[in-house]
Amino acid sequence: MSREPLTLGQVIGDVLDPFSRSVSLGVLYKDKLVINGSNFKPSAVVDKPKVEVGGDDLRTFYTLVMVDPDAPNPSNPTLKEYLHWLVTDIPATTNASFGREFVCYESPLPTTGIHRMVFVLLRQMGRGTVFAPQMRHFFSTRRFALQYSLAPAAATYFNCQREAGTGGRRFR
């Protein structure tokens, strides 16, 4: 069994197929780095994070998606995946503020259970080649990537539960 955090957290499987990371991705909420499986309360993720993208070629562009594969409830995720944020045309070596925000950031506010908030960085074929989906719910990162010929380049996730929630994540 793999000890890779994205596999252990079932991001690989629920959101993405296995892939090899090809670029660095740093997600920071108020200077606190998102590390796979870390815990954040809704009050800590109200404002959109700073997202740093690695790479070495400014002619390479990326799309960032932030999804909740556990919406509305981890034991019955009927809205999965719920799209919280979508930014396209992010040049390598910069951050998400240099991209084009197609779907504005919606802060996580889970009411039941522990939700995984997944950030996926997808390599684009070129600038201006990715467009917004029609709705936030029933989003599929896999289907979206296929539609626009996007290749997963990096991913990270954190766990989020309501302010008064306690306990660890239970896997299906």
Automatic annotation (TrEMBL):
Cited InterPro entries: PEBP (IPR008914), PEBP-like_sf (IPR036610), PEBP_euk (IPR035810), Phosphatidylethanolamine-bd_CS (IPR001858)
Listed Pfam families: PBP (PF01161)
CDD domains cross-referenced by the UniProt entry: PEBP_euk (cd00866)
PROSITE patterns: PBP
Family: Belongs to the phosphatidylethanolamine-binding protein family.
Stated name of the protein: Flowering locus T
Annotated source species: Ensete ventricosum
Classification lineage: Eukaryota, Viridiplantae, Streptophyta, Embryophyta, Tracheophyta
